[in-house]
Amino acid sequence: MSLSQTIRLVAALGLGATALTVVGLAAPAQAGVADTRPACLTPTPNARIVAARGGATGLDHRDISADEQRAIMRRANSRLAAQGLSGRGRVGLVARTVPVYVHVMRDAQGHGNVTDAQISQQIAVLNRAFVNLDFSFNLMDVTRHYDTAWHTDRESVRYRSLTRQGGVNALNIWLVDFRNLGIATFPWDTPRAIDGIRINYDSLPGGSIVHYNEGGTVVHETGHWLGLFHTFQGGCTSTNDQVADTPAQATPTTGCPATRDSCPAPGSDPIHNYMDYSWDSCYQEFTAGQGGRINMMWTAYRA
Fold it and tell me: Each residue of 245-254: pLDDT tens digit?
């Protein structure tokens, strides 16, 4: 039985959040049936719900320490200096169009064969989310493959290397069926042959993953692909996510609470930010500071 079938069965049995005990792979975000309690009643982290975005380790990307964060920033500044630029202060917001290649990984029976309409809706969600940052996404191609191993994200290095299209500026999206919502590479990661994001096909608009089927996963993972960390990166520290206008956040948000403040520093948790772990329906914004970081990382690594 596939994960998506398991999710639907658990939902039908009314087991709610217990489905989130099905944990994901090493570092990714797990897809599952979210808590069915009202959002305003979930102001504190629930490990089972956090697993819906972050898998067994609570992350949908490889772990990055504060020291590595600072090293990444130094390397980015060095690359910008080589271009005659100097940090984020010299990298203005410039309209950018990102070519997008979608790879639909179906199994031998055709499971996972999302429709062209779903893909179009997902690209529309992506464009609405990034419009204020002057980023747009242009769907270039959709390829469909019949391979059960690839469908379940086995041989992922091989299938990505064989199917990836475009240059370093191209966003490749592989739609698979795994115990995660999504996994992303960062712009500074190598090798380029596997650069892109892997997404649970049932999280696209119209999918069956409760609370995570409005397209927010692709937006969230694209944020990582463009160089953003989670808003709760580093917890209540000065480093945090290295974005000044996202208040420090101790832990991921679960559900969509009315408000939440998990750190003593000024500002409430950015629960509506796409880089938190909120429900899709809770997502509303990227900040200007995140836009600045994205442009900086784009210029340093993807331009």
Answer: 999 999 999 8
β-bridge partners, 105: 145
Long-range contact set of residues 8-11: C-beta below 8 Å, sequence gap at least 24: 8/208, 11/208, 11/210
pTM surpassing 0.90?
no
Give, for 161, the enclosing helix (H) or strand (E): helix 156-163
Tokens 């990714």 locate to 28
Superfamily of domain 1-81+94-303: Collagenase (Catalytic Domain) (3.40.390.10)
Nearest to 46, CA basis, from 6, 16, 17 = 17
CB 118 within 8 A of CB 205: yes
Least confident of 3-12, 102-111, 199-208, 270-279: 3-12
3-state secondary structure string across 105-148: EECCCCCCCCCHHHHHHHHHHHHHHHHHHCEEEEEEEEEEEECH
Active site residues: 221
Contact 35, 10 (CB under 8 A): no
